[in-house]
Specification:
Layout: H1 8-13, E1 14-16, E2 19-21, E3 27-28, E4 43-45, H2 56-61, E5 75-77, E6 90-92, H3 94-100, E7 104-109, H4 120-133, E8 138-142, H5 146-158, E9 161-167, H6 172-179, E10 184-188, H7 192-206, E11 209-210, H8 216-219, H9 224-233, E12 241-245, H10 250-264, E13 274-280, H11 285-292, H12 317-327, E14 331-334, H13 336-350, H14 356-370, E15 379-384, H15 393-396, H16 409-420
Helix pairs in contact: 4-5, 5-6, 9-10, 10-12, 11-12, 13-14
The structure holds pyridoxal-5'-phosphate and zinc ion (ZN).
């Protein structure tokens, strides 16, 4: 394996934490490796047990980015890239709460995440700093769209080369929203799962930092910052339930880990929220595992417009199902029609335009409400993870056509009269 090595000064400033296998517990040096060589289990960063943690006031006084929680991110020293990602709005949604029959609801609005308009900015902020710590100067990813946008944007700002692999037939917004930053973008004839397999070989062959393959142990930790922000933005307390969309299954597991870490640090009290997972019916291997029970995930061939979450063989699927069940939550899959309706409901009730994954989350929330999973006193956060302008084709066909008129007052008068009938 060949690595491009950056300057010693860079490496002295920022170090990645060592890793430990989630399965067998074996400890490994910090490295661009995500899989245990003994048992093939996933590696996770190992945080120093006795490190000193900040209190609420210290965190609150820090700059408004996800690095305000840096003691829970897998580095020692100062991060050097993506310093402005994180701290997206948490927006109360009373009309949505009413529709769901619950006490209160909020939208955690990562559709306006900086810089690439999806929650993937959080994981890439972590991964690109891991790449820097290892002196890797070319990063890459296997992506369903949003990760491609994020890797391309973050690499451009950092001055790193990026090789990005996607299924050939993604939405125009995802392809253009990647190409614009000037990466090497490669469209692969196959599903995301084919792309992912190819990227595992690519990472080995070229020594690149493929953010969700060999840098995955560091990458995933970025997702926890969504949980920290929810806790801080609610005034240092936890909601009773959280709903998030699932692709590889990482986000739901990291939300739970993040809430648990804030409870451990006594920054909040109470209990870890019930975690609910959402997928589209055309690709719902994690939901079906939750429903079936056990630990054997059955891979699927995706067939849904929710491309950003269409992973047929999710890397963290088993852990996601376990997390959901342990937390007392549940999982639901929704049809493409229902998720399009979910996009419209979020726009009309909350004024937030989300992509297909967000529509899936809203539609699943409605399903949980009608199935009796939500309680009248629930305080629910919906994780809205990507922007609607990235997948306009999902809704273009279902919206009313706007009238076209001449610039004459009488034409407007006619329209106003019609609409008041
Ligand atoms: C990637 C993605 C997810 C889910 O991420 P996982 O951690 O892989 O489960 C959710 N929403 C959007 C918009 C995404 O791009
Ligand atoms: Zn192991």
């Amino acid at each position: 394996m060949t690595l491009n090595v950056a300057s010693e000064t860079t490496r002295a400033a920022l170090r990645a934490l060592p890793l430990r296998c989630r399965n067998c517990g074996r400890e490994h040096e910090a490295a661009p490796t995500a899989i245990c060589e003994d048992c093939l289990g996933p590696l996770e960063p190992l945080y120093p047990a006795q490190r000193s943690l900040p209190d609420r006031a210290t965190i609150a006084a820090r700059p408004r980015s996800l690095w305000r929680y840096r003691e829970w991110l897998p580095f020692e020293g100062d991060p050097i890239h993506s310093l402005d990602t994180g701290v997206t709005p948490l927006l109360e949604a009373p009309r949505l709460a009413k529709r769901l029959g619950i006490a209160r609801a909020w939208v955690k609005n990562d559709s306006v995440s900086h810089p690439s308009l999806s929650f993937k900015d959080r994981v890439v902020a972590a991964a690109i700093n891991a790449a820097a710590a290892f002196g890797i100067e070319t990063i890459g990813c296997a992506s369903t769209g949003n990760l491609a946008n994020a890797v391309a944007a973050h690499a451009a700002r950092a001055g790193l080369e990026a090789w990005i692999f996607i299924p050939h037939d993604l939405e125009a917004g995802k392809i253009i929203g990647t190409s614009i930053y000037g990466p090497r973008l490669v469209r692969v004839r196959g599903t995301y799962d084919d792309v992912n397999r190819l990227c595992a070989q690519v990472a080995d062959r070229f020594g690149w930092g493929v953010v969700n393959v060999n840098l995955r142990s560091y990458y995933g930790e970025g997702s926890k910052t969504m949980a920290y922000e929810i806790a801080e933005q609610l005034g240092w307390r936890l909601p009773s339930a959280v709903i998030a969309p699932m692709a590889g299954g990482s986000l739901v597991t990291k939300l739970r880990k993040g809430f648990a870490e804030f409870l451990d640090a006594e920054l909040v009290d109470g209990a870890v929220p019930r975690i609910y997972g959402a997928q589209a019916s055309g690709c719902a291997p994690i939901v079906r595992l939750v429903e079936r029970g056990g630990t054997e995930l059955v891979p699927e061939v995706p067939n849904t417009i929710a491309r950003s979450i269409a992973i047929g063989n999710p890397a963290d699927g088993r852990y996601a199902a376990q997390t959901i069940r342990d937390s007392g939550g549940w999982a639901a899959h929704v049809s493409d029609e229902a998720l399009v309706e979910g996009i419209r409901i979020l726009a009309e009730d909350v004024g937030v335009f989300t992509e297909t994954a967000g529509g899936t989350t809203v539609a699943a929330a409605l399903a949980f409400a009608s199935q009796g999973h939500l309680r009248a006193d629930d305080e629910l956060v919906l994780c809205i993870t990507g922007h609607g302008l990235k997948t306009v084709e999902a809704v273009a066909g279902v919206l009313p056509e706007a009238p076209t008129i001449d610039p004459k007052l009488r034409e407007v008068v006619a329209l106003v009269q019609q609409s008041s009938h």
